[in-house]
Structures are given as C-alpha cells and as structure tokens.
Design a protein that fits this description.
Layout lengths: L1 H8 L9 H11 L4 E5 L2 E4 H17 L7 E5 L4 H12 L3 E4 L6 H10 L4 E5 L10 H6 L1 E5 L12 E2 H5 L20 E7 L7 E6 H15 L6 E4 L6 H4 L3 H7 L2 E4 L5 H11 L3 E5 L2 H6 L14 E5 L6 H8 L3 E6 L8 E3 L8 E2 L8 E7 L4 E2 L15 E7 L17 H6 L1 E3 L7 E11 L4 E7 L4 E3 L2 E3 L1 H8 L5 E9 L8 E8 L7 H11 L8 E5 L13 H6 L8 E6 L4 E4 L2 H6 L13
Parallel strand pairs: 1-11, 3-4, 3-5, 4-8, 5-6, 6-7, 10-11, 10-12, 12-13, 13-14, 26-27
Antiparallel strand pairs: 1-2, 8-9, 14-15, 16-22, 17-18, 17-19, 19-21, 20-21, 21-22, 23-24, 25-26, 27-28, 28-29
Length: about 600
C-alpha cells in the first residue's frame, strides 16, 4: 500500500509534467516496443505517438486550443487512443461519452461538457438519429473502418482530414500552463439520481494511478494488459491504460468482453494483467471447464464486484495468483483494496485514524446522518453499517484526497458535506454503505437508495443477492424492492437469469433463501428472465425492473413466496389474492 501511495505522490497538482510527456518519453525510449494489439494489428509506442501527433495537428487545424473540449463517442478502437492522446498533446480536454446513450441523455452530455467538436465512431452513428439538431451546432467527424454508411451530410470522415498532417510532436508550448491539477478528461458518473454528471479526471491523478500500481505490482515492459471494458470508463482508461503506459507494457484491446474468447486471448497474447467488473467473473466461471483452465500466464486480476459465492472457486479453478478486489470511483477521493484474499471484502484501511476515510452512522429510513448532541457525526463501530465519507484535501503538493468535482458547480456542492466533525471541514459523500470488521476490513453493503425497508427491517440488496447467487446454475441475480399497495416499505424481489439450458426450481430456490436469510430478507417475489439488464461495465441495472413491480411481462415468469408451502408459486391473480397481496390484474403465470 505504501508503494502505491509513493507512486501517486510523485505527481502533484503543481507539476507541469503531463500525459503527453509520458507518451513522448516512452516513444523515444522504446519506439519499436508493442503498445497496442488490436484485431491482428500491432501498434508500437513510436507509431502510437506518430498517430497521436497527426490527430493533434488536425485538431489544431480545426481551431481547437488549450482548454477546449472535444467529445469522443466510439467503441474501443485504436482511433479512440489516437484522439485521446492527440488532444492531450495540445492541452485539450476529452469528454468521454457512454456509447449506450442517445436522445436527451446524449444532448445533456454534450451540453454539460461544452464540447466544441464531436468525434464519433461509425458504429455509433445511429445514436445521433434522435438528436439531429445537435449536428447543426457541433462540428462532427466520423471515424470509420471503411465507408461510413448513413453518415449525415454535415459530417466529415476523419481519415480524409488526416491526409498530409505532420506526425512530429506538436510544440510543447501549446500545452503551456497545463498542470497536474488541469483536467485531462471528463468522465460521466451516474450517481444515484438525475442525469449523469461529468467528473473531472486530472493529469496528476491519471499519472499517479499508473505509477502507484506499477510500484505495487512490479509491472514492467514484459507485461501484457487485457482491456475489454469500455475506454470511456475510468476502469479501462485510468486503472488499466495508465498502468500499461507507466510500465511500458502492451495493451491487448477488444471492442467488448467475450466470455468464450477471454482465455484464448489470454493464452495467445501472454496476458499477465486483466481487469474485471461486476458480473464478468461469474460469466467466466459459468463457461464449461476445460483442460486449459490453468494454462495461461495471467497472474493478477483487479476490479470490483467479485461475488463471494464464487470467489475462492474462481481462484482455485483458474489458478490466479492475485485477485485484488478494490473500491474507488471516478470522482471518489477514498480508495482501498483487498490484497490478501479476505473473501467478500473490498479492502482494508490500515491506520484508518490517519486516513481521510470515515464510516459514519446513517439512518437509512430517514436518509439522515445520526449525530451527537452537538451536531457532529458519529463513527461506526465494527459490524455497524454506515456511509463512507472522504475528507477533502485540496492541498498544495497532494494528489490523494482531492475532490476535483464536476463541470456543474451545483452538483459539486451537493456532493460535499460540511462541518461534519468540526467547523470548516469538508467531506465527500460517496453514497456507498459499508460495514467494517474488527480487523478493519470493509465490506460493501449497498448504494444509498438501493437498500429497502420491509417488516420494519433494512434489507441490503447486495447481501441478499450474494446469498441467492449460490443457487446452482444461476447466471445473474438482481435484488431490489417493489411496493405493494396498502403495505409499508418495499417487498423484496429477485430477478433471476439461469444459465442456458438450465431451469429454475421454485422449491429449491425458496429453500436456499429460507435457510440462509432472515425472514424479512427472503424475497417476496421472483422474476425469471432470459437475459439480464446489464451496463457496459457488467453491473446489474435495476431501474426498469423496479418500474415493472410484480406485474407480468412477456417472456418473464413471476413467482410469489408461499411460506406455508415452503416454495415459490406462480404469481397468478388467485395466488396473490390467497396470499393477501393486491394484484387481481395479474395474467396467467407459470405452473
């Protein structure tokens, strides 16, 4: 842990050293060493730098200058990095747009970042169909693998504009005034409510993360980094790409994650470091076992969201030396990691009294903090659930503990809790609920707002899902609360996706829940589905499921718990009435 801190401390808010300098240094030191491998193409450090330079000179020709913002809307591809590095070379800021959004969400993303130019991959052109008015006010270039079919007349292809652009390093004076505290890119984070917010990722933070992890893991030029998460997300762009550039290693880039191709790529490319997020490890674990499961060089997997139900079995089956579960976030100023395989924990904070992290008592019923008589907050003891806060340390010479905020000043201020422990202090509200044990290991409980109350008890959706995920042959389990007319609180519901060819057993599932969970936490309803609603970073999405409640939906089967029978039964109108649950409009359900 000290090695990580030492690496991050090398990069300060005041420094003039930037990401562009790091790439140019690497290109000069190891010009022929592979930097990026993509769909059979190998791009060296020297070639990456030359391509970044061509894109930088093109951006200059379009009038972009230091501090201007250009948006990138494209899937994983080399051009994403050419543009990202190229814009950094002239002091511009990249706004990284989620490729899954369109319409009002896309319009909001471009407006809130004040983007002056949009670079869009041909694969994402259809996202612009619902917002044709944007093209009239925004200069747009299309990145295509060949012919850009369906390209609006107001757009131009990037390839045609790169002809004749020089490939030498732009004058460093173009980024004069750029410091470690300057924004490198804007990354969207959804939080718990409202439209996504654009968080500032600074030069020093991006560089420091790579330096710190290289120190800690002993990474170097021989390491191969597998990138399957979207580059518009910090998990890939910062937690992986920064490591690779700091180490001088190679990145094997894929458009998207494929469970069936994952280990083949790992073996073929000698990958040593990979990331996971959300349900990725479960998808890999659910693949049929093979004789080659341990035939690879992968030694480290880092990420978040590894379920305790498969943790040890996953590590044993695939022979991964280090599984590093961690906690952090795009704008979060608190971080931790589990480096010694404490199952279920996302990390330990040694000497926590000297850290900027505090776990404080929080009333989930009223959405308020529990305070001392003098109004100050109360820290949680072992076993108590509370919200994680991070003391904001925007101090000279320090990168750790900073909160760089959003493009929206009002959203930034809403995230800050002031006068928490003493007059004048300021703390970042993470919105995440944790529990810590006697050894200061922390366990993620839920997001604020996801926890629901039923039978006068608070229910953690994460903890219930972790238990239900132990059900044999399950692919994913999403737990959330739904209202029942006339009853207080929200009743638990589990959306279950089974592995292909496997059937849901309503008796066995109820038996698992009743055996492992307290009565109030047993889901009242179960909805079985063919596919999970999942984000690009493999986190389970709940919003649309919550809107459905326990109403029928074509293709889904809905069940209700029948405690007297010790099983789940079809949520027909008759069964709901018999169990005292309103819902006489329910259609015929599974037998």
């Amino acid at each position: 842990m000290n090695l990580i801190a030492a690496g991050m401390m090398k990069h300060t808010p005041e420094q003039s050293y930037t990401v562009a300098d790091r790439l140019e240094e690497r290109a000069a030191r190891q010009p022929d060493h592979p930097f990026l491998i993509y769909e059979g193409r190998t791009i060296s450090y020297g070639e990456m730098n030359r391509q970044a330079n061509r894109h930088a000179h093109f951006a200059l020709s379009q009038g972009l200058r230091r501090g201007d913002v250009a948006a990138l809307l494209m899937e994983n591809r080399p051009e994403f990095l050419y543009l990202w590095f190229g814009l950094a070379k002239i002091g511009c800021v990249s706004a990284l747009i989620n490729t899954q959004i369109s319409g009002e969400a896309l319009r909001h993303a471009l407006a809130t970042t004040a983007s002056q130019k949009l670079f869009v991959g041909a694969e994402c052109l259809d996202r612009l169909d619902s917002t044709p008015d944007m093209l009239a006010s925004l200069s747009t270039c299309v990145v295509a693998d060949g012919e850009a079919k369906g390209m609006p007349a107001s757009c131009v292809t990037l390839e045609s504009r790169l002809i004749g652009q020089p490939d030498g390093n732009p004058d460093p004076k173009l980024r004069e005034g750029i410091t470690g505290q300057s924004a490198l890119c804007l990354v969207f984070t959804s939080g718990t409510t409202g439209l996504p917010k654009a968080a500032r990722v600074t030069q020093a933070r991006w560089l420091g993360v790579g330096e710190g992890w290289c120190n800690f893991l002993g990474l170097g030029p021989d390491d191969g980094f597998y990138c399957v998460l979207p580059l518009y997300h910090v998990a890939a762009l910062m937690s992986l790409l920064s490591n690779a550039l700091a180490a001088g290693g190679r990145v094997i880039l894929r458009r998207r994650f494929s469970a069936s191709r994952f280990w083949r790529d790992v073996r073929e490319h000698g990958i040593t470091v990979a990331q996971y997020s959300g349900e990725m490890c479960r998808y890999l674990f659910n693949q049929p076992p093979t004789a080659d499961d341990r035939n690879h060089q992968l030694r480290v997997m880092t990420g978040s969201g590894l379920s305790p139900s498969i943790w040890q079995a996953f590590q044993d089956r695939f022979g991964i030396t280090q599984m590093i579960e961690g906690y952090g976030g795009t704008e979060i100023n608190v971080g931790m990691m589990n480096i010694d395989n404490r199952i279920g924990s996302c990390g330990r904070i040694p000497f926590r009294d000297r850290s900027n992290a505090r776990l404080v008592k929080y009333d989930r019923d009223t959405d308020r903090y529990i305070r001392h008589p003098d109004g100050t907050l109360i820290e949680c003891g072992p076993g108590e659930v509370g919200e994680m806060l991070g003391m904001i340390l925007n101090l000279p010479g320090m990168t750790g503990g900073r909160f760089d905020g959003y493009t929206d000043a009002e959203a930034t201020e809403k995230k800050i809790l002031r006068n928490a422990f003493q007059p004048g202090d300021a703390w970042l509200r993470t919105g995440d609920l944790f529990r810590r044990d006697e050894d200061d290991y922390y366990y993620f409980v839920d997001r604020v707002g996801d926890t629901y109350r039923w039978k006068s008890e608070n229910v953690s959706t994460t903890e219930v899902a972790n238990v239900l995920a132990e059900y044999p042959d399950v692919e994913t389990v999403t737990v959330y609360g739904v209202p029942i007319p006339g009853q207080e609180g929200r009743a638990g519901m589990a959306a279950v996706v089974m592995q292909p060819g496997k059937r849901f057993d309503p008796v066995a599932f109820h038996q698992l829940a009743a055996t492992r969970l307290p009565g109030y936490a047993i889901p009242v309803f179960v909805r079985t589905r063919a596919n999970a609603d999942i984000t690009a970073t493999f986190k389970l999405r709940k919003v649309d499921l919550q809107k459905l409640g326990y109403a029928p939906e074509p293709g889904d089967d809905v069940y209700v718990a029948d405690p007297g029978a010790g099983r789940y039964v079809a949520a027909t109108a008759d069964n709901l009435t018999r169990l005292g649950i309103p819902g006489g409009n329910q259609e015929s359900q599974p037998s």
